[in-house]
């Protein structure tokens, strides 16, 4: 019998990174040595006392009792699709097709996999959510960064975006509200992005998973509402605004001139059919979420606004740290006003204080100044303890 050989992983996995969870490896080392940890790295509201609304849980439970435990249609159950359609129209979107997916992440995977060929590129915000970079690495495509301008409340630099376009560019990713900066984009910027997409014949992939968590009361604008002709895939789901990340229920809304998007849509539907379906009983939570009691959102915003204000005040009071005010979601993206390498800064912070944050370069190669991301979901007591430790750390090493 021949000697067994080491199993070689595929080349497509070599460039895949996911900083938000990868940094946990450093935290585990401190924990194994007996140190305590304050987690400010994972955007899971349920871990920090935010409860999934009971009517969503009841809807999934009732569906299971009524034997909706087999496969559903690959695109999703009709009641859920119709509720998403009404929700989309209420935001000014004219849906061509709706697909219900295993979290918004699967919807993003479908949209990229159905669009991008080997060597093609997609414009992604920097800083931005690292899933896009990871999926494009797997597809052997290129995540080509465009700058979000810290001096302009982290809004996209449309000029830099245009400079990144070439004949192999297929799409522009827009994350609004943005993760990790908490920026909420103006209509003017979104209109400029739509005009750019029209000029260069690009698809817009619009991640709106935090669209109801707007902390300063301004309007959230869906980019697909600006021009119904432009091909747009809008991503959303139950994980953030509806406090149900473990349900793993998301969706994609495809819009645009039908003749322009029908083949692309069919390719996404092929991928949906190949994986059979999203979780059947939990899809029945979608109508209850979108049409039912919304009191939990008002309460979540109240709590998040107080924690956001505390975070901004405390961070800006620490020597060597500055922080723009986030207007949406539950993240802040403070800048380190010192000559440091952000990965080593974060690792040392974890080793010495137990405060677990994510290095800014894990969210993209720009800006070149060092940053880190803070999740301000924990209680004010926990946040104050974390910021006390951060301040002491900065005074010891960077005063």
Describe how the helices and strands are arranged.
Elements: H1 19-22, H2 24-32, E1 38-39, H3 54-65, H4 78-90, E2 95-101, H5 103-113, E3 121-126, H6 131-138, E4 142-149, E5 155-156, H7 158-163, E6 169-175, H8 187-200, E7 203-207, E8 232-237, E9 250-255, H9 258-274, H10 285-291, H11 295-316, E10 321-322, E11 331-332, E12 335-336, H12 342-353, E13 355-356, E14 358-359, E15 372-375, H13 380-398
Overall spatial form: globular
Question: Which sheet architecture does the biggest sheet show?
Answer: 8 strands, mixed
Number of helical segments with 4 or more residues? 13
- Measured by DSSP, the beta-strand proportion falls in 15-25%
- Proportion of residues in helical segments: 25-40%
- Report the order of strands and helices: HHEHHEHEHEEHEHEEEHHHEEEHEEEH
Structural class from helices and strands?
alpha/beta
Q: What is the rounded Rg?
A: 21 Å
How many DSSP-defined strands?
15
The low-confidence parts are none
How far is the first residue's CA from the last residue's CA? 65 Å
Mean residue pLDDT: 94
Strand line-up across the major sheet: 2-9-8-7-6-3-4-5
Features:
globular; single chain; 399 residues; 13 helices; alpha/beta; 8-stranded mixed β-sheet; 3-stranded antiparallel β-sheet
Description of the molecule:
The protein has an eight-stranded mixed sheet, with helices on both faces. The mean pLDDT is 94. It has helices spanning 19-22, 24-32, 54-65, 78-90, 103-113, 131-138, 158-163, 187-200, 258-274, 285-291, 295-316, 342-353, 380-398; strands at 38-39, 95-101, 121-126, 142-149, 155-156, 169-175, 203-207, 232-237, 250-255, 321-322, 331-332, 335-336, 355-356, 358-359, 372-375. The protein contains 13 helices and 15 strands. Helix 5 packs across helix 6. 47% of the residues are buried. The protein has 399 residues and is an alpha/beta fold.
């Amino acid at each position: 019998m021949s000697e067994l050989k080491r199993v070689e992983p595929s080349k497509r996995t070599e460039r895949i990174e996911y900083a938000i969870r990868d940094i946990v490896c450093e935290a585990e080392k401190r924990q194994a040595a007996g140190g305590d940890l304050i987690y400010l790295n994972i955007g899971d509201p349920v871990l920090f006392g935010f409860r999934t609304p009971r009517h969503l849980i009841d809807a999934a439970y009732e569906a299971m009792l009524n034997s909706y435990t087999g496969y559903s249609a690959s695109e999703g159950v009709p009641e859920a699709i119709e509720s998403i359609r009404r929700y989309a129209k209420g935001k000014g979107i004219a849906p061509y097709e709706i697909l219900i997916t295993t979290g918004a992440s699967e919807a993003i995977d479908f949209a990229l996999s159905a669009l991008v060929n080997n060597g093609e590129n997609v414009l992604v915000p920097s800083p931005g959510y690292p899933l896009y970079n990871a999926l494009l690495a797997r597809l052997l495509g290129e995540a080509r960064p465009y700058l979000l301008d810290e001096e302009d409340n982290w809004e996209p630099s449309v000029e830099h975006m245009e400079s990144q376009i070439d004949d192999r560019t297929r799409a522009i990713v827009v994350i609004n509200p943005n993760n990790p900066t908490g920026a909420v984009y103006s209509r003017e910027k979104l209109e400029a992005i739509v005009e750019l997409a029209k000029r260069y014949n690009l698809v817009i992939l619009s991640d709106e998973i935090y669209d109801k968590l707007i902390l300063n009361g301004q309007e959230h604008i869906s980019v697909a509402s600006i021009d119904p002709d432009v091909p747009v895939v809008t991503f959303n789901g139950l994980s953030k605004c509806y406090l149900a990340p473990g349900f793993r229920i998301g969706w994609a809304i495809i819009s645009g001139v039908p003749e322009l998007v029908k083949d692309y849509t069919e390719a996404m539907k092929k991928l949906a059919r190949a994986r059979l379906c999203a979780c059947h009983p939990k899809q029945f939570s979608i109508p209850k979420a979108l049409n039912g009691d919304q009191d939990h959102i008002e309460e979540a915003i109240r709590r998040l606004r107080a924690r956001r204000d505390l975070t901004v005040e405390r961070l800006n009071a620490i020597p060597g740290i500055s922080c723009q005010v986030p207007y949406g979601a539950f993240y802040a993206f403070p800048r380190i006003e010192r000559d440091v390498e952000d990965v080593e800064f974060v690792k040392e912070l974890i080793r010495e204080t137990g405060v677990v944050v994510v290095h800014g370069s894990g969210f993209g190669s720009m800006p070149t100044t060092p940053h880190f991301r803070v999740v301000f979901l924990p209680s004010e007591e926990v946040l104050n303890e974390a910021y006390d430790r951060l301040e002491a750390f900065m005074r010891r090493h960077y005063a």
